[in-house]
Amino acid sequence: FNVSRVETTPFGDQKPGTSGLRKKVKVFKQPNYLQNFVQSTFNALTPQNVRGATLVVSGDGRYFSKDAIQIITKMAAGNGLRRVWVGQNGLLSTPAVSAVIRERVGVDGSKATGAFILTASHNPGGPNEDFGIKYNMENGGPAPEGITDKIYENTKTIKEYLIADLPDVDITAIGVTSYCGSEGQFDVEVFDSASDYVKLMKSIFDFESIRKLLSSPKFTFCYDALHGVGGAYANRIFVEELGAQESSLLNCVPKEDFGGGHPDPNLTYAKELVARMGLGKSNSEVEPPEFGAASDGDADRNMILGKRFFVTPSDSVAIIAANAVEAIPYFSAGLKGVARSMPTSAALDVVAKNLNLKFFEVPTGWKFFGNLMDAGLCSVCGEESFGTGSDHIREKDGIWAVLAWLSILAYKNRENLGGGKLVTVEDIVHNHWATYGRHYYTRYDYENVDAGAAKELMACLVKLQSSLTEVNEIVSGIHSDVSKVVHADEFEYKDPVDGSISKHQGIRYLFEDGSRLVFRLSGTGSEGATIRLYIEQYEKDPSKTGRDSQDALAPLVAVALGLSKMQEFTGRSAPTVIT
Ligand code: VG1
Ligand code: CO
């Protein structure tokens, strides 16, 4: 093949967000748009990670992925990479990509040094929806800010990109295709999307005990992939390996447009699962399963449900951390430490304190956990946004979270499956609250609001922080039951491993009784701005942990809306989504 240098001019809008570059498909389809970003990324890497290197390219299979894979493959050849690895049909979940970078050995003994993951995660897909791309490093984790900043700088000055005149590669069939260039050979290896990931899961969990749980007539299970890439793993893991019935899998055929839905596993968007679990409005006659779970487009997020019961993601990570050593073989030697993102509730903090574990609070986005894990400081971590994971890879992992919960259920029921009453998801959560107290928690999202108005709202909240007296006057004027604000700031993080500092990571109002209000602007949207408001209140008294969370939080919500003048700035009387 031959390589050509193609002249190009910069686009001004290629700054990677919380998790890569996400835009409408029509933006990505502009001539040279994807090419500029890919070349800017190659130019930001060390030469050893480009020339002669092995690159993974795959994603959640959303619309435009197939075109993108062809373009990136040809550019990889043009930039002197030695080989590209592609999951069959271009499918690899985000956690599977991380596993492939870390664990997979190619047919010729090669190892990968990085990946382009093609996904916009939980954002809808299709010709009029979102596409996304992000680069993951040699450790399997998202590129740190130092690299994403460099990529962005490169996109602002790019003049040319390199591309080889290869024919389109067939990504439907497993196997290696070799091409000969003037500087040597270039291979494309298409491999099974699930094998490496399944192998890793089997090395972490006790599949035999989960199998026993799933085959017990007392236990019923269901999993919804929301038409995302989780479906490429569900049958292999839950049905073939663990013996679940095929009818327990919902929406497990990956689709380019996620069936027209929003592949976001929460109570609003995972409607079918929510109804099946007895949480929806339609009260069907059928008894709901004991356990239900969903994952997002790229299968790194998870939602865990019990029968007519929702587990908040903040509680989920705390409960996994509290039970991991007993229930999950991978952790049997103990946890190295735990971590959560700043807006995630402090349920994990209480577990860390009680179990005397190292604890870290990082900014939103998985890239901040990677350094801690590489340094051996953290085993289990999570975010309030339905992200949970561990140091088995460097991404959050939806199916891992489901297996972690199944492991805990299997462990708690190890003597009950023959006779005795099943310990349910709800029992596990209630017992956890009885031991550690409960963190009432909710998140309000105002999607697609005017970007200028959102900025102003945030600026006013920052300005207000200079006078706590004024803040407390406003607070007590709105609701007399709410305690005093004792501290307010913008969250700033100094990475304990490399010393790098990340500023402006969210506005915090901290109350005397441990309650918190957090305001942030989303970094994953593709249109307008999304304001996120996180509301949390701690209740230690076991007689008061059983309330409805929206009721319990109503006074704090009123304070948050009043302090921020939400309606005044955004014109919205209600959030788009409540989780
Ligand atoms: C959101 C979540 C954040 C998560 C990120 C990526 O970011 O709040 O916790 O890490 O999405 O998740 P933001 O900036 O929009 O609040 V996913 O499933 O896109 O990889
Ligand atoms: Co995701």
Q: Numbering strands along the chain, what is their spatial order in the largest sheet?
A: 2-6-5-3-4-9-8
Cα separation of the termini? 52 Å
Q: Helical element count?
A: 18
Q: Main β-sheet: number of strands, strand sense, barrel status?
A: 7 strands, mixed
The general outline is globular
In which range does the helix fraction lie? 25-40%
Strand content: 15-25%
Number of strands: 26
The average pLDDT is 94
Q: What molecules are bound to this protein? A: alpha-D-glucose-1-phosphate-6-vanadate, cobalt (II) ion
> Which parts are unreliable, with pLDDT below 50 for 5 consecutive residues or more?
none
- The secondary-structure class comes to alpha/beta
Instruction: Using the CA coordinates, give the radius of gyration.
Output: 24 Å
Cofactor: Mg(2+)
GO molecular function: magnesium ion binding; phosphoglucomutase activity
Subunit structure: Monomer.
Family: Belongs to the phosphohexose mutase family.
Question: Summary?
Answer:
The chain is an alpha/beta fold and 579 residues long. Helix content is 33%, strand content 23%. The N and C termini lie far apart (52 Å).
Give the helix/strand layout.
Layout: E1 3-7, E2 21-24, H1 25-28, H2 33-44, E3 54-59, H3 65-78, E4 83-87, H4 94-103, E5 114-118, E6 130-136, H5 145-157, E7 160-164, E8 175-181, E9 184-191, H6 195-204, H7 207-215, E10 221-224, H8 231-241, E11 249-250, H9 271-276, E12 291-295, E13 302-306, E14 309-310, H10 313-327, E15 338-341, H11 347-354, E16 359-362, H12 367-374, E17 380-383, E18 387-390, H13 398-412, H14 425-436, E19 438-449, H15 451-464, H16 468-478, E20 485-490, E21 493-494, E22 501-502, E23 507-511, E24 516-521, E25 529-539, H17 549-564, H18 566-570, E26 577-578
Enzyme class: isomerase
Domain Alpha-D-phosphohexomutase alpha/beta/alpha: 14-161, 196-305, 314-414
Cofactor: Mg(2+)
